[in-house]
Amino acid sequence: MAVNEAPRISRQFSLCMVMEAIVHCGPISRASIAKQTGLSKQTISEIARQLEEDGWIRETGRTQGHVGRSAVTYEIVPDAACIATVDLGGTKVRAAIADLSCQVLAEVTEPTDARGGVHVISQIARLCREAAAHNNIPYERLRMAVVGVPGVPDQERGRIVMSPNVTGFETLDVRAALAAELGVEIVLENDVNLAAIGEHWIGSVAGVDDLAYIAIGTGIGAGLMVGGDLVRGFGNAAGELGFLPFGTDPFEAESLKVGALERVTGTVGIRRRYRELSGHELDVPGIFDALGAGDVHARQVLDETARYVARAVAAICAITNPGKVVLGGSIGSRRELVERVRDLLPLCFPSPVELDVSELGSRVAIVGGAAVGLTHLHSTLFAGGVPGAEISLPPAKVVKLVEAAQ
């Protein structure tokens, strides 16, 4: 290390410590920052002045009710910089804005453009702009976008593979196309990985470092954490549960495209099985309604689906031994399915499995995207590229979902 580098690195660590105290505890006085960080009041005053001049923090008032002189307090300027967080699904796409105070602002959502490819790229870019406008955020303050996708991001080429529910992404440089549309840095991540990150940040398994999040909806997939880190695997395809080789014949051509397990546990498979048994066509919510009305065919479909899901959970538990398993997604979060899976697990796995339902619901990937984006943004803005200089995120605040006009 060069001699003249030491003061800069020390200063960067100090800046991160001051910002972390303000992000977590603002409004906060310099005396309180000093108590938390161990930094001198002079150092804190110099850093606070710099941050205030640069527009990252602001004076918010003075402390009251204490003996002696009142003290100036500081808080972060929430919208000084923001990120977009997007959850792209086979049926819906959601976009939200997250600010520096870790507030996930109101989302906009609409059906995914069925044409796929560049049409979905344009849709995502439009929704990001609409989310910013809806929350009165000047678009030029957007620094990056984190996009959760239903497939495996090819980080070298920017395309998305193993994504049968959104067409046209396997041959398209999705990252470059989005960057051109939005004019900001783009991070692509598997949507269920983002869900696992969201649950680990503020969900039902917050702080549990060994967990599995299983999403069941249009398809089925898992986000796996071991020791607090995502399990990605070679090629980033870890957790693609749809391709577990049971449920249907894994050697059939359709199984290579969609996945043997996904063919029976996703929306299309559940609807197909009900049609085979009853001779009638129902959507998945209708099948759950029929179950409640005592429909024997609906009961058989959900019993069979639960057995497949229980086998998938057991397979994960045999490999990663998670402390908790969380079920989510439009199908996976249904009580009727969760209860069946919970009852079946002791019959196919010898150790107890703690099974929860996602508390974040449809927002879970949006929240995970906010965690990824804000961590990156804070590092970019305040760590100055110094290894180890970082700002931990406080619990997020999530504003109510807003549905876009259909």
TrEMBL record:
Domain of life: Bacteria
SUPFAM superfamilies according to UniProt: Actin-like ATPase domain (SSF53067), Winged helix' DNA-binding domain (SSF46785)
Gene3D superfamilies: 3.30.420.40, Winged helix-like DNA-binding domain superfamily/Winged helix DNA-binding domain
Position of the signal peptide: none
InterPro entries given in the database record: ATPase_NBD (IPR043129), ROK (IPR000600), WH-like_DNA-bd_sf (IPR036388), WH_DNA-bd_sf (IPR036390)
The family this protein is said to belong to: Belongs to the ROK (NagC/XylR) family.
Name this polypeptide is given: ROK family protein
Organism encoding this protein: Nitratireductor aquibiodomus RA22
The organism's taxonomic lineage, starting at the top: Bacteria, Pseudomonadati, Pseudomonadota, Alphaproteobacteria, Hyphomicrobiales
